[in-house]
Fold LysR family transcriptional regulator.
Amino acid sequence: MDVDLRLLRYFVVLAEELHFTRAAQRLYVSQPALSSQIRRLEHRLDLVLFDRSSGGVRLTPAGAAFVPHARAALSEASLGIAAAVAAAATPAEGDTLRIDVQASGLATPRMVIGALRAALPKVALDVTSYGSTSHAERLRSGDLDLALCGARAPSGPDIAEQPVRAEPVGVALPETHLLADSAAVDLGDLAADLHYLPRDGFAPDWNDYVLTACAAAGFTPRRHPSSTDGTDTALELVRSGECIALSLVSTSPPPGCVIRPLAKHPAPYRWVLRWPVRTPMHPHITQARRAISNLSMAHSWLKG
């Protein structure tokens, strides 16, 4: 015989209170509605569960015998729901989540990957750093599950995203540079320097950011001829005095190189997490998004 769990809950609460008004208040229903539902349960079971009289409400022998079984049914249902939720939230052994991060050596990508590993300990993270140009196509084709990149990277209506960090931008200078000891540097004072930018096909969103900031400062940067994509290699070029480079302020410079904030505070560089809009969604994207959202909130990353 099938009995609605809601009716069982109404019965158990009334059995505990033995008072229709108090039971109705606990259940957030009206007293007439509770009375109607109890009568419905009794009709369903073909049993009288309560004696009702002007003196109050009391359990019949049948009602008293039914109480522990009704409680057990509610408890079992609650445990079943909890088990289902836990199973959905617990990664299965052997699962893989593929994520490409722009400039994996930078602080923000490292912290994001660390947060994902902590939140998904049973999931194998396949981390690559091929550049933001290919992110959208790889997400669409199913070759990639997540991408961490700048907000200006190529995207589309079939790609969803959430903000991760609004990160301040400074400038990396060799410690021998005339402005290396400045508390803050006016970007316009760097118009005569060679500027490092990654190759156009690797991080067009970062290059667009740099070119926009320089244009706002009144100049078009002269590019260093190097085509390297690695942050470490770029900072080595800066350290050697070959060029300067706009840089996220969280970057750790090597010896011989310093990072100074920009005096006029250009717009922050905005990191986003992206994933494909499709059904069914990868089973761990929701957990990954939650982990990164918690990371952002913990460090106040979105206040910029």
